[in-house]
From TrEMBL, chain A:
Residues 512-647 form the Fumarate reductase/succinate dehydrogenase flavoprotein-like C-terminal domain. The keyword Cell inner membrane does not apply. PANTHER family: SUCCINATE DEHYDROGENASE 2 FLAVOPROTEIN SUBUNIT, SUCCINATE DEHYDROGENASE FLAVOPROTEIN SUBUNIT. Keywords: Flavoprotein, Oxidoreductase. This is Fumarate reductase/succinate dehydrogenase flavoprotein subunit. Residues 45-451 form the FAD-dependent oxidoreductase 2 FAD-binding domain. InterPro entries: FAD-dep_OxRdtase_2_FAD-bd, FAD/NAD-bd_sf, Fum_R/Succ_DH_flav-like_C_sf, Fum_Rdtase/Succ_DH_flav-like_C, SdhA/FrdA/AprA, Succ_DH/Fum_Rdt_flav_su, Succ_DH/fumarate_Rdtase_cat_sf. The lineage of its organism: Bacteria, Bacillati, Actinomycetota, Actinomycetes, Micromonosporales. Signal peptide: none annotated. The keyword Flavoprotein applies.
Automatic annotation (TrEMBL), chain B:
This is Succinate dehydrogenase/fumarate reductase iron-sulfur subunit. Residues 150-180 form the 4Fe-4S ferredoxin-type domain. It comes from the Bacteria. PANTHER family: SUCCINATE DEHYDROGENASE (PTHR11921:SF41), SUCCINATE DEHYDROGENASE IRON-SULFUR PROTEIN (PTHR11921). Its cofactor is [3Fe-4S] cluster; [2Fe-2S] cluster. Keywords: Iron, Iron-sulfur, Metal-binding. Residues 18-103 form the 2Fe-2S ferredoxin-type domain. Belongs to the succinate dehydrogenase/fumarate reductase iron-sulfur protein family. It comes from Paractinoplanes aksuensis. It holds the Pfam family Fer2_3.
């Protein structure tokens, strides 16, 4: 495998305090240096991203007195992709008195992450979870309540306790509006300088420290350099490398990737989460996929025809004995409620066997006929009415009459920039929060935990740890003429010029779609050495073709949505290659990463703790033919001991 | 199906725009309206033309980015549906569909179908929040909120800030948007201390941003993808009168 990467030094210092896990965060906070309130105004912090992580961080830092400059690519900070989260947010409040605790949430998260997360970070996340709910309620987030006026909870994603707080199916929207309003208050007070429709295209490093970013004003095309004492990336996940995913169209890896190219290690890029219940593709025009709540599997039964030749027939014409309720058959005790990754892989397997239904044979049925018979249409409507309506709006089919069709789709990326306990990357002064970092979820994220992590990072963790760093400042003022600043700016200008000058004969989207196909096929639900090696070759040649044949219309000095896309897709190419290399090197199955070669005789994921109990942090390959370098952060499990899951 | 679209093309804020007709062939009825435009844009690019610029992101009806007036109606013909959730099966083969940007004094056109809605953010910055600095929050269960109030507040809070209400209003008023936020926060006990200043400051910001006055035409609620009811404007007016009475 030496063909694809080099081995580097291990990572030994994660900045996590030692000692009892319950008090590590307390001790970190106590030992953190404080910034004199009078000095804070003189310190500038750049925050890229206004989702739950960036929005909460910007508001909190501004309240603390720092001067904050915020950036997002949408026309308003309120539209960050966090707005789309549906199900809920976890917190160890134990309001149900059902045995929940900080320790249990910590335990569930480490186990759910398939023992590939750092215990110290996860414990802290569970600790701050309770403060998040208090904070959001104080802001007026309209969580669901019971008749007594107290907060309602539900159980989510197979946990045995009810710890998920929610606001109908729009939890992300309501939490984000809370953070956005707190931000707007600080904008009104002049403490945050908001730059919507501005895209970060490069990181500026001066004398080893992150000191600024290069941004493009997406309306005028003007390129500027923005300086600060520290830079925070809160730019979200990279699921769109697959082209089709449940992410918003603009989600991208550019901010993280630019930092990676400048020295920040990228951890576990191959860990992706694929959600089993999404609405399938309807044709070649498909531009994104829509998630349907997982709760549907509580009452719907998943099946495909036993025989491939039946797949073209309407569902109603397929007799009961000709249907294969494959989840119930393979997993008799969990049935339709097996975890996300198992349900996803099983769906792909039956479709690969030629037994898929709907356009292209890429779908399986989720049938409510039994539930309607058992509970009555009214009861089913009360439970799932809004989801059925959404399904019908998109597909034009009535799920009360014909079974729904579902198919797995890319949903979340656990990998991201490597950060230490302080959420600082390997570039001093560059902090990374939310989905953009790799921390907390290991190889698999539990439902309702991304919102918790984003807000935990932004409201509670970063403001403390960033203060510790800034206590060494204010740092020397950097002029725009500094060689490093000029160089970063020239890199951005050069790239834009190059993209515009190719003037080839293929659109950006056509490249992005093709890249997505490669990734889905070879680096999706099941990965093999053969497939990944092939994928790396395919990605490299398509990448080369991109720089020769892409056609980007228009100029750089105007609103140019294709230029924006082209820059993002160019970075996706590089990321895709690293994802495949990471997947290739990890010769085990864990969480969202399933290696065909590493399974039990009955097809379950097989971890290899002896060999792979580490975080794979990659250093960017410099030079033309150079390979990325692998740095390992060994994981210690002092509290939760690795075990194997079983759903049979 | 084959259709034609007549689209507003405008290169920048300072140049006059015009409607331009394009044919779109062989489009699937299952495609969304935005996907139909994607397909058209792909062919425009390859023909060396400028693709049509439009705002969009989530394509799930929740971010509020998409914003088109379709055949004269903000977000198009389907009720309670954003542009991104509108599908081509609601049109017929041979249809000629008009596509225009939001038009309102406070929302200047940037390019083609993209407008500047930052005035909405200014209204929120003026008072659309509850002051609750991080770290100062009491235990969440310290203040129970009656379920009816919480549910009503939630309904008002579902506004996605798309601006269709403004685009549909003959006066270009932002009243439904502002009313939704005033109701959301005013219905919660946490929102009471700032209730009076909030409504006064937000209405002031609305005027300053160049939105028109509300004359109860009700067009806003007709196009609102989230069904924000007109009654919230009545609630806002009552809040405003009370706040002014207390102040003077
Ligand atoms: C459909 C769906 C449903 C989900 N449901 C749940 C759920 O129920 N519970 C849960 O816990 N999680 C859920 N998740 C996951 C969760 O929503 C996300 O992981 C989380 O919201 C990410 O937040 P974030 O702040 O890290 O990033 P985002 O919200 O993605 O924000 C990224 C920000 O960065 C900005 N940005 C990006 N690149 C640049 C750049 N180059 N320059 C400038 N700005 C940039 C964007 O403008 C944006 O403001 C769901 C995800 C999806 C897709
Ligand atoms: S009130 Fe309705 S139409 Fe107006 S911005 Fe909100 S969601 Fe859009
Ligand atoms: S694109 Fe988000 S609401 Fe339409």
């Amino acid at each position: 495998m030496g063909d694809f990467w080099n081995d580097g030094d291990p990572i030994v210092d994660t900045a996590a305090p030692e000692g009892p896990i319950e008090t590590r965060w307390e001790r970190r906070k106590f030992n953190a240096k404080l910034v004199n309130p009078a000095n804070r105004r003189k310190l500038t912090v750049i925050v890229v991203g206004t989702g739950l992580a960036g929005g909460s961080a910007a508001a909190t830092l501004a309240e603390a007195g720092y001067h904050v400059k915020s950036y997002c690519y949408q026309d308003s900070p309120r539209r960050a992709h966090s707005i789309a989260a549906q199900g809920g947010i976890n917190a160890a409040k134990n309001y149900r008195n059902d045995g929940d605790s900080i320790y249990r949430l910590f335990y569930d998260t480490v186990k759910g992450g398939d023992f590939r997360a750092r215990e110290s970070n996860v414990y802290r996340l569970a600790t701050v979870s309770v403060n998040i709910i208090d904070q959001c309620v104080a802001q007026g987030v309209p969580f669901a309540r019971e008749y007594g006026g107290l907060l309602d909870n539900r159980s989510f994603g197979g946990t045995q306790v009810s710890r998920t707080f929610y606001a109908r199916g729009q939890t992300g929207q309501q939490l984000l509006l809370g953070a956005y309003q707190a931000m707007e208050r600080q904008i009104g007070l002049g403490n945050i300088e908001m730059n919507a429709r501005h895209e970060m295209l490069e990181l500026i490093i001066v004398e080893g420290k992150a000191r600024g970013i290069v941004v493009r004003d997406m309306v005028t095309g003007e390129i500027t350099t923005e300086m600060a004492d520290a830079v925070v990336l809160a730019s979200g996940g990279y699921g769109n490398v697959f082209f089709l995913s449940t992410n918003a169209k603009g989600c991208n890896v550019t901010a993280s990737w630019r930092a990676h190219r400048k020295g920040a290690l990228f951890a576990n890029p191959c860990y992706t989460q694929i959600h089993p219940t999404c609405i399938p593709e309807s044709g070649t025009h498909q531009s994104k996929l829509t998630l349907m709540s997982e709760s549907l599997r509580n009452d719907g039964r998943v099946w495909v025809p036993k025989r491939a030749e039946d797949c073209q027939k309407p569902a109603a014409e397929i007799a009961e004995e000709d249907r294969d309720y494959y989840l119930e058959r393979i997993y008799p005790s969990f049935g339709n409620l097996v975890p996300r990754d198992i349900a996803s892989r099983a769906a792909k397997n039956v479709c690969d066997e030629g037994r898929g239904v709907g356009p292209g044979g890429l779908g399986v049925y989720l049938d409510f006929a039994d539930a309607i018979k058992r509970l009555g249409q009214k009861a089913v409507e009360a439970k799932y009415g809004n989801l059925f309506e959404m399904y019908q709006r998109i597909t034009g089919e009535d799920p009360y009459q014909v079974p729904m069709r579902i198919y797995p789709a890319v949903h979340y990326t656990m990998g991201g920039l490597w950060v230490d306990y302080d959420l600082q990357s390997t570039v001093p002064g560059l902090f990374v929060v939310g989905e953009a970092n790799f921390s907390d979820h290991g190889a698999n994220r539990l439902g309702a935990s991304a919102l918790m992590q984003g807000l935990g990072d932004g409201y509670f963790v970063l403001p403390t740890t960033l203060g510790n760093y800034l206590a060494n400042g204010p740092f020397e003022k950097i002029s725009e003429d500094h060689a490093s600043v000029k160089e970063a700016r020239e890199q951005v200008e050069g790239r834009i010029k190059r993209l515009l000058e190719i003037d080839g004969d293929r659109t950006v989207d056509s490249f992005h779609r093709e890249l997505g196909h490669i990734m889905w096929e070879y680096c999706g639900m099941e990965r093999t050495e053969e497939g990944l090696t092939k994928a790396i070759g395919l990605i490299r040649s398509l990448h080369e073709e991109f720089w020769q044949r892409v056609k980007v219309p228009g100029t750089g000095e105007q609103l140019n949505q294709n230029l924006e896309k082209a820059g993002r897709v160019a970075d996706f190419f590089e990321l895709a290659e690293l994802m495949c290399i990471d997947a290739l090197h990890r010769r085990e199955s864990c969480g969202g990463h399933f290696r065909g070669e590493s399974q039990t005789p009955d097809g379950e994921a097989l971890r290899h703790d002896d060999e792979f109990s580490y975080v794979a942090a990659w250093e960017y390959a410099t030079g033309e033919s150079a390979k990325p370098t692998l740095h390992k952060e060994q994981l210690e499990f002092e509290y939760v001991h690795p075990s194997t899951r079983s759903y049979k | 199906m084959d259709i034609k679209v007549r689209v507003w093309r405008q290169t920048d804020p300072d140049t006059a725009g015009k409607m331009v007709t394009y044919g779109v062939k062989d489009i699937s009825p299952d495609a969304s309206f935005l996907e139909m435009l994607d397909v058209l844009n792909e062919s425009l690019i390859l023909d060396g033309d400028d693709p049509i610029a439009f705002d969009h992101d989530c394509r799930e009806g929740i971010c509020g980015a998409c914003s088109m007036v379709i055949d004269g109606v903000a977000h198009g013909p389907e009720k309670a549906t954003t542009t991104c959730q509108l599908h081509m099966r609601h049109f017929k083969d041979g249809d000629v569909i008009d596509v225009e940007p939001w038009r309102a004094a406070a929302f200047p056109v940037i390019k083609d179908l993209v407008v500047d809605r930052s005035a909405f953010d200014d209204i929120i910055a003026a008072g659309g929040y509850i002051t609750a600095p991080t770290g100062a929050a009491p235990e969440a269960h310290a203040t129970p909120v009656p379920k009816v109030d919480a549910d009503l507040a939630f309904e008002a809070a579902t506004c996605i800030g798309c601006g269709a209400c403004v685009a549909a209003c003959p006066n270009g008023s932002a009243m439904l948007f502002t009313a939704a936020k005033v109701a959301h926060l005013g219905l919660m006990p946490q929102g009471q201390p700032e209730r009076d200043t909030r409504v006064i400051d937000m209405l002031q910001a609305q005027d300053d941003a160049g939105f028109g006055g509300c004359t109860n035409m009700g067009e806003c609620t007709q196009v609102c993808p989230k069904g924000i009811p007109l009654t919230l404007i009545g609630r806002l007016n009552a809040d405003y009168r009370q706040a002014v009475r207390k102040k003077f």
